[in-house]
Amino acid sequence: MSPSYCFYIYNTFYLLYVRFETPCGCSLNDEYLEAQVQGSRQEAEQGDLVVLTAGDKELFMDCQSCFKAMGKTAFFLGDVGYATKTNLILNLIKGITLVGLAEGLSLADRCGISSTDLLNIFQLTSLNCKYLNDKAEMIFKKDFKHVQQAIEHMQKDMKLALDLSDQMKQPLLMTSTANEVYKHGRRLGYDGFDAACVYMRTRH
């Protein structure tokens, strides 16, 4: 491989193993930049992604114009593998939080609490962040066809986070439970819908 050769991979599954083997059998001493992105499909269209990178720092600096075109900021996190691990950790936090939101809204529905009142109160509290607010509105409308992150992709990331936790011998009890909730949602036939559809699973 030429010393000037570089490539980018955004596939989460593959990058978990990049520390052990890279395409074409290249050495990790070659110029290599791992890149992951945080953000929804809408944020991607608006150029508001957060780019997480690891690997060759000089290459990271050379790619600043690319990162500015696709996102609002880019982070260099160190050796190859750290971008993927950071991305998985952020996604497991999202995944666990979304299951909590879905179960809370399901309980509110069972209690006969007005969804309009609940959403108004929700938006006036410290819970009101863009991610949860968008998911709450999806759930209230029961419209999961406008996909920001498909349920199968969410469940894949939860599973990969659990695989990483096995390597690190770090218990992830909430992640394990949330993963089962997403699997149940997929079993009910919700593949291709936004992960917020996990709310429908909480009603069965």
Automatic annotation (TrEMBL):
* A Pfam family recorded for this sequence: NAD_binding_11
Q: Which InterPro entries match?
A: 6-PGluconate_DH-like_C_sf (IPR008927), 6PGD_dom2 (IPR013328), 6PGDH_NADP-bd (IPR006115), HIBADH-like_NADP-bd (IPR029154), HIBADH-related_NP60_sf (IPR051265), NAD(P)-bd_dom_sf (IPR036291)
Residues of the 6-phosphogluconate dehydrogenase NADP-binding domain: 31-78
Q: Which GO terms describe its cellular component?
A: chromatin
Gene3D superfamilies referenced in this protein's UniProt entry, alphabetically: N-(1-d-carboxylethyl)-l-norvaline Dehydrogenase, domain 2, NAD(P)-binding Rossmann-like Domain
| Domain 3-hydroxyisobutyrate dehydrogenase-like NAD-binding, first and last residues per copy | 83-194
**Protein family according to the UniProt entry:** Belongs to the HIBADH-related family. NP60 subfamily.
The entry's protein name is: Uncharacterized protein
**Native source species:** Acanthoscelides obtectus (Bean weevil)
Species lineage, top-down? Eukaryota, Metazoa, Ecdysozoa, Arthropoda, Hexapoda
